[in-house]
Structure formats: C-alpha cells, structure tokens
Amino acid sequence: xxxxxxxxxxxxxxxxxxxxxxxxxxxESRGWVAPVMLAMFVIGLAWIVVFYVTDGSLPIDALxxxxxxxxxxxxxxxxxxxxxxx
Length: 86
Prior knowledge:
By secondary structure, the protein is mainly α. The chain has 2 helices and no strands. The longest helix has 21 residues, at 33-53.
C-alpha cells in the first residue's frame, strides 16, 4: 500500500510592520483617590463599630439598624472611589 505524503505547513510569518507607531499611554496619578478611599473605609468601619459599641444609640438613633447599611454604604463608596486609582 502506498504511503501518503506528509504535508508540511508553512511557518508562521508575521505581517509586515505597519507604519503605525505605538502611542504612549500616560497614566496620571490622581493624588486625591487614595486618601478619599481610605477615609471612606475608615468612616464606614467606625460607623459600624460605634453602632455596635453603643448598643444602637449612636451614631444616629432614629436609623436603628439602618446604621449598618450606612456604614456599609461608606465602605462601598470607598470601593467605588478605588476604581479611579491608576
């Protein structure tokens, strides 16, 4: 029985280099992002800790257990601000 021929695939050759030049991406550091992010985290954590330590009478008594949501809202806002960090 005759042996089949082995086909040799052509080696990959990259397309010719275009005349485009790579544009440099300048990442500007936003100095306000880190302090605001950390402040939001600390405020949210402090809000929740104060609520638990005072048995719900502080920071805002009228909010009752919604004080936890406010604390986590500050923490979530801190994560939202962190997306602006470059």
